[in-house]
Design a protein that fits this description.
Blueprint (H helix, E strand, L loop, with lengths): L2 H7 L5 H10 L3 H12 L4 E12 L4 E11 L2 E10 L13 E10 L5 E7 L14 E7 L4 E7 L13 E7 L2 E6 H4 L1 H18 L2
Antiparallel strand pairs: 1-2, 2-3, 3-4, 5-6, 6-9, 7-8
Length: 202
């Protein structure tokens, strides 16, 4: 960890969170400052740092999301890099970074879902939980509607029964793989999911 990061955020962020931000390697000073500003004076109970790289036809783009759980809030900080808009005054710089923080009261978090992928379940070892998890957190800002044609019990019926479906909260989803992200990040994702699930049940 660089001494600069310690000097800027040591009073606000715990060492473990700073280390994970540093490990993600995406403008750590910027990300740490955004997280610290959003957390304020509250103590941090748990955290998760998730980095992702996407490749399109022209460039490689990076993205990092930091999840922070405090006694009363779920805080998300996002940072991305992208090309500036054509009329932007910083267009000549080539690439810019944007950082955003979002605060959700724990009373508004509707659900925490942790999906696990278990390879070769016949040989499953108790307590291992697999090598990959998908964490989905919903608080009502974004919902997904899945619709299907409605059917009745009569197999000869050809009437139009409209549609039926489900509305699923899906505000943020991250996938953490031990093979891609490391065992420590996988364990941290599981620990964060457990802490957040317990917090919204208080």
């Amino acid at each position: 960890m660089s001494s600069t990061s310690k000097q800027i955020t040591a009073s606000a962020l715990p060492a473990g969170l700073l280390a994970d931000i540093e490990q993600a390697g995406y403008f750590p000073l910027l990300v740490a400052d955004v997280v610290a500003a959003a957390v304020g004076t509250e103590s941090i109970e748990s955290h998760l740092v998730h980095s992702e790289t996407t490749i399109d036809s022209e460039t490689v783009r990076r993205h990092v999301t930091v999840f922070v759980l405090t006694g009363s809030r779920l805080i998300l900080a996002h940072a991305d890099d992208h090309a500036p808009e054509p009329d932007s005054p910083v267009q000549h710089l080539g690439t810019v970074a944007t950082a955003t923080s979002e605060t959700v009261p724990l009373s508004c978090v509707r659900g925490v879902m942790l999906g696990r992928v278990i390879s070769d379940p016949v040989k499953y070892v108790e307590g291992s939980f697999g090598r990959e998890v998908t964490l989905t957190i919903s608080w009502g800002a974004v919902s997904r509607i899945d619709l299907l044609p409605a059917n009745c019990a009569d197999p000869t019926c050809d009437a139009d029964h409209g549609y039926e479906g489900t509305i699923t909260g899906d505000d943020v989803t991250v996938r953490v793989s031990a093979d891609a992200d490391g065992d420590a990040n996988l364990l941290q994702a599981q620990a964060f999911s457990t802490a957040l699930s317990a917090a919204i049940g208080r």
